[in-house]
Amino acid sequence: MRSTTGWQVQDRTTLVSTPLPRRDLRRDDVAVRIDFCGVCHTDLHALHSYEGGTLVPGHEFTGVVTEVGPDVTAFQVGDAVAVGNIVDSCGECDMCSAGQENFCREFPTLTYNGTDRHDGTTTLGGFSREYVVREKFAYALPSGLDPAAAAPLMCAGITVWEPLRALGVGPGMRVAVAGLGGLGHLAVKFAAAMGAEVSVVSRSAGREAEAVKLGARDLVVSSDPDSAAASRDRFDVLIDTIPVAHDLAPYLKLVAMDGTLSQVGYLGSITVETMDLLLGRKKLSSGGSGGIPATAAMLQFCAEHGITADVEVLPSARVNEALDRLERGDVRHRFVLDLSDLS
Questions:
Q1: % of the chain exceeding 90 in pLDDT
Q2: Is 295 a residue whose pLDDT tops 90?
Q3: Is 64 exposed, middle or buried (0-12, 13-18, 19+ CB in 10 A)?
Q4: 206 shares a domain with 137
Q5: 40, 48, 111, 288: least surrounded by Cβ within 10 Å?
Q6: Exposure pattern of 245-278 as b/e (b: 16+ CB <10 Å)?
Q7: SS3 labels along the chain
Q8: Which of 125, 93, 62 is nearest to 291 (CA)?
Q9: Cα 224 to Cα 47: distance, rounded to the nearest angstrom
């Protein structure tokens, strides 16, 4: 058994630095020295729902391969890699066969707080200095991408990439993005690079300059009845990245006839009035993470278009500060932890 150091949840408010176990490499494993790991709202939810046991958050990280198993062919020591929120799947079901490991019928193994498919242990996440992962769930990090700013692509990025691609976003389409956080700002960048006409939907009129800088053409102020009314039935696709419970009705009103609202930010229960869908044959969809082909395609697209996340990098020793500020919404647009301060 290998060992490393990481940030483990101590209670529902605090993480502490502690030694952690890592498995010895299996034949198709790579060991990764983690350099940068993004901080996601999912990490915050895990912290607040902690009920005991060893919990180490973090599921979007970049680093360097330090060791490879004997059957590994895609990587060698020294390669820059990225790892997301899925580290294994059954590999045999129809979803896995279709390259949608994120929808594995046996449920994918998550990067943390998941169950290892071989030994039944609980997976420990990327708020640590080393991770051991199957070769097929590690991705070559294109050389042109900054490793700190690329880390959030592996969760926030792929979460919005898949629905944008699945809905055929491209030139001539009108796309709105609700919410301008970790997911939303990347959705704006992606949609604009795909050639769509992009708008941001926000409660605050003060975010227009920020939205335009990211690639949007304008801002729809959802709290302003006149602004919202002027954009009624306007958008072919609306990507809703708002991470808290909210009423979907005002956003569905912005969707055009036969258009789609894709809800990817809030993972709890929602209520939808059928009439809000009926008037205009509007559709409600969602998505979660991405499969291996889509994740690789996203990284290549980002390399070609120079897309990374807008990040604030903090030493990992300030992880508790990052989580506290994330809960208060005090971040533009994603915190990333620098793990080099761990031994």
A1: 97
A2: yes
A3: middle
A4: no
A5: 48
A6: ebebebbbbbbbeebbbbbbbbeeeeeeeeebbe
A7: CEEEEEEEECCCCCEEEEEEEECCCCCCEEEEEEEEEEECHHHHHHHHCCCCCCCCCCCCEEEEEEEECCCCCCCCCCCEEEECCEEECCCCCHHHHCCCHHHCCCCCEECCCCECCCCCCECCCCCECEEEEEHHHEEECCCCCCHHHHHHHHCHHHHHHHHHHHCCCCCCCEEEEECCCHHHHHHHHHHHHCCCEEEEEECCHHHHHHHHHHCCCEEEECCCHHHHHHCCCCEEEEEECCCCCCCCHHHHCCEEEEEEEEECCCCCCCCCCHHHHHCCCCEEEECCCCCHHHHHHHHHHHHHHCCCCCEEEEEHHHHHHHHHHHHCCCCCCEEEEEHHHCC
A8: 93
A9: 35
Could you tell me which of 248, 340, 336 has the C-alpha nearest to residue 58? 336
- CATH code, 299: 3.90.180.10
User: Considering its fold, how many domains does the chain have in total?
Assistant: 2
**Claim to verify: residue 119 and residue 195 sit in the same structural domain:** no
Both 303 and 319 in a single domain? yes
pLDDT at 343: 78
Q: Which of 286, 309, 324 represents a domain boundary (last residue)?
A: 286
Q: Are residues 151 and 162 in the same domain?
A: no
Asked if 195 and 106 sit in the same domain, the reply is: no
Q: Which of 286, 310, 329 is the last residue of a domain?
A: 286
115 and 206 assigned to the same domain: no
For range 275-294, the mean pLDDT = 96
In this structure, are 9 and 151 located in the same domain?
yes
Q: How confident is the model over 316-334, as a mean pLDDT?
A: 95
In one-letter notation, the amino acid at residue 39 is V
Note down the domain range covering 226.
157-286
Question: What CATH number does residue 222 fall under?
Answer: 3.40.50.720
Predicted structure pTM score: 0.96
